[in-house]
């Protein structure tokens, strides 16, 4: 099989699984679809010959984060069911985000290519030293932001579980 065909297969699989995460009413099934979307993304990394990133994605995210999501879902005893209707603010925010995404994609498409400056430093390759150098120099801020987002999500789960326990006492 050619690399282009494999790219289309993995990308279609990843997008389909991501859509299943969004539209699935059962939280456990959505977490399993998220796991499959991460595996499809790892396949795309393999096509880019970034084997270390593919393995790290499967081990760290698919192994640890999805297991943590499943633990939290089962801890909170989330059940699928009736969803409340979207508010006007939610619809407006989603429309604005979709419009910004469309404008960004159209601007990239109109330029014809994506230009990215290579960082000055060790050669870009598939060795661990190059990844570590880029991670702690060029991508330090995004990594810290993701860490803070995970911390906020963890605190949110703790708050939700405490609120959930308090509601059981009222009944």
Series of secondary-structure elements, N-terminal to C-terminal:
HHHHHH
CATH superfamily of the largest domain: NADH-ubiquinone/plastoquinone oxidoreductase chain 6, subunit NuoJ
**Main pleated sheet:** none
| CATH class (first level) name of the largest domain | Mainly Alpha
In total, how many domains does the architecture comprise?
Answer: 2
- Count of DSSP strands: 0
What is the CA–CA distance across the termini? 60 Å
> What structural class do you assign from the helix and strand content?
mainly alpha
**In angstroms, what is the radius of gyration?**
20 Å
Assembly level: single chain
Helix content, binned percent: over 70%
Mean pLDDT: 77
CA-based shape: globular
CATH topology of the largest domain: Four Helix Bundle (Hemerythrin (Met), subunit A)
**Beta-strand residue fraction:** under 5%
Proper CATH architecture of the largest domain? Up-down Bundle
Number of helices in the DSSP assignment: 6
Spans where pLDDT lies below 50 across 5 or more residues: none
What is shown here, in short?
The protein is mostly helical.
Keywords for this entry:
77% helix; 171 residues; 2 domains; mainly alpha; Four Helix Bundle (Hemerythrin (Met), subunit A); 6 helices; globular
Descriptive notes:
- With 171 residues, the chain is mostly helical.
- It has two domains: 1-82, NADH-ubiquinone/plastoquinone oxidoreductase chain 6, subunit NuoJ (Four Helix Bundle (Hemerythrin (Met), subunit A)); 123-171.
- The protein is built from six helices and no strands.
- It starts with a helix and ends with a helix.
């Amino acid at each position: 099989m050619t690399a282009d065909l494999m790219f289309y297969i993995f990308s279609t699989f990843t997008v389909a699984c991501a859509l299943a995460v969004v539209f699935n009413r059962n939280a456990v099934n959505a977490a399993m679809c998220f796991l499959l979307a991460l595996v499809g993304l790892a396949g795309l990394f393999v096509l880019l010959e970034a084997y270390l990133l593919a393995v790290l994605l499967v081990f760290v995210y698919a192994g640890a984060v999805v297991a943590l999501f499943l633990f939290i879902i089962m801890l909170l005893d989330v059940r699928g069911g009736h969803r409340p209707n979207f508010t006007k603010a939610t619809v407006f925010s989603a429309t604005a985000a979709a419009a910004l995404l469309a404008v960004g994609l159209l601007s990239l498409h109109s330029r014809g290519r994506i230009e990215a400056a290579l960082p000055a430093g060790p050669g870009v390759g598939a060795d661990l030293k190059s990844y570590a150098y880029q991670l702690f120099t060029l991508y330090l801020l995004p990594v810290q932001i993701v860490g803070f987002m995970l911390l906020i999500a963890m605190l949110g789960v703790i708050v939700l579980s405490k609120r959930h326990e308090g509601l059981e006492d009222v009944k």
